[in-house]
Design a protein that fits this description.
Blueprint lengths: L11 H14 L6 E2 L2 E2 L22 H9 L8 H23 L3 H17 L6 H26 L6 H30 L8 E3 L34 E6 L10 E3 L10 E6 L6 E7 L7 E12 L6 E8 L8 E8 H6 L3 E6 L14 E6 L7 E2 L2 E2 L10 E9 L7 E13 L1
Parallel strand pairs: 3-11
Antiparallel strand pairs: 1-2, 4-16, 5-8, 6-7, 7-16, 8-15, 9-12, 9-16, 10-11, 10-15, 13-14
């Protein structure tokens, strides 16, 4: 980048040579100077090969980025990915240290990573560097305040060790928030709200709309209330006929990051299906419970449109929660990426005794358009329906009603055309 100083470690002759080479090449590069793009053609410009622009003209993409103050626009794709990989990689090391009682070691790793990014000349985003500097300054202030308090006469022995641990934990969290903010600046998830796919609870054939009507975003299939599989469907899990297959769904809760939420898939009595049940708690920055079912090397669902779930809320409170359907393909399994779509149940009543009724949720594969890792967007291709390796259900924190106990009853999971 023009005006960026070369590393001081380079010999002066090499610096001079590098600056001379950059000066010769810079007229052929497209950059943003104030609000105008350089009037040259460019292959390296984010918008591709540009037409010749006047000195006060700006391409539409640069104008949008400049107006938005997008920190991501200041970085090349390679540098942006390196920053994200550095942060997410060190968090994978830091979380086990923190959970194992070594908050001081965790804080040290986070601080080293933050300062490494700040000092990296390739990272040209002032916004990212500022948030990391602020996090380091906050952590240092916590340490200095603790030292000043101890110097004024703190408790000795075991109490002193306990206080030191709390200080280290506060420092680690201050640094973690800064690292998370830096990643969010780069990945910047879309601002629009995701579609919530609702359960359809229409009764029997001949009542309401016919089968197949009302399909699409936000709606389910208008089929019979018995939800009998048809040639247009492939049933993957029939919990009514085989409740024991609930054991194929393993728990994956926020304990992996220090949380204390609980969730599991358990069989219900006498053909009642299975129940995804648990509690979402917010302690230790947690807030999710999930279950996952694996298909080994993957199954081919490319001839289908999406996934259906026959579900009902296990209690009235669970009817007001939203749930996530999680899917992974073969590439996801290797890169720890997943795709999610949101769905909800409705507090409908069945015809027998007024209990909560069953409904069918249809989620098209097209809904899985936001690949993410650890809740943050990543760059990769479209979901591979020809190699579906894992399905999952999740309850995630957010609105107040998302916290606490939940019960989602499931009769069947399958694919529909």
């Amino acid at each position: 980048y023009e005006g960026t100083p070369l590393p001081l470690a380079l010999p002066s002759a090499m610096q001079a040579l590098g600056k001379a080479a950059f000066a010769a090449l810079s007229p052929r590069l497209s950059t943003v100077a104030g609000s105008a793009c350089r009037p040259r053609y460019s292959r390296s410009h984010p918008a591709g090969r540009l037409p010749l622009l006047g000195p006060q003209q700006t391409c539409r993409r640069c104008a949008m980025r400049t107006a938005a103050g997008d920190a991501r626009a200041e970085l090349s794709d390679e540098v942006a990915q390196n920053v994200v990989n550095s942060i997410t990689g060190i968090i994978k090391f830091g979380v086990p240290l923190f959970n194992g009682g070594d908050a001081k070691g965790c804080a040290r790793l986070y601080r080293q990573t933050a300062m490494g990014i700040v000092r990296d000349a390739a990272v040209t985003s002032d916004q990212i560097k500022a948030c990391l500097r602020a996090a380091v300054a906050e952590a240092d202030a916590i340490a200095e305040a603790a030292e000043a308090q101890a110097g004024a006469g703190g408790a000795a022995g075991s109490a002193s060790e306990a206080d030191a641990k709390k200080v280290s934990e506060r420092m680690a969290w201050a640094l973690r928030r800064g690292l998370d903010t830096a990643v969010n600046y780069i990945l910047d998830p879309p601002p629009d709200e995701p579609t919530v796919y609702s359960a359809d609870t229409s009764k029997g054939e001949g009542e309401g709309k016919g089968e197949g009507e009302g399909e699409g975003e936000g709606g389910g299939a208008k089929g019979p209330s018995t939800m009998t599989p048809t040639v247009e469907e492939a049933q993957l899990f029939d919990f009514t006929a085989s409740p024991e297959i609930a054991g194929r769904w393993r728990s994956m809760n926020d304990g992996i990051m220090g949380g204390v939420s609980e969730g599991a898939m358990v069989p219900l009595d006498a053909g009642g299906g299975a129940r995804f049940s648990g509690v979402v708690r917010l302690e230790n920055n947690g807030g999710f419970a999930s279950v996952r079912a694996s298909f080994g090397s993957g199954i081919d669902l490319s001839q289908f449109t999406g996934v259906y779930l026959d579900v009902k809320p296990g209690d009235a409170a669970s009817a007001h929660k939203t749930y996530l359907l999680v899917v992974k393909d073969d590439e996801c399994m290797a890169t720890q990426v997943n795709f999610k779509a949101t769905f909800s149940c409705v507090e409908s009543r069945d015809d027998e005794g007024g209990g909560l009724g069953w409904g069918r949720v249809r989620v098209p594969f097209a809904a899985f358009d936001r690949p993410e890792r650890m809740g943050r967007g990543v760059m990769r291709g479209a979901f591979r329906t020809e190699a579906v390796c894992e399905l999952g259900l999740m309850v995630l924190k957010g609105a107040p009603e998302q916290s606490g106990a939940f019960n989602l009853d499931v009769r069947a999971v399958g694919a529909y055309k």
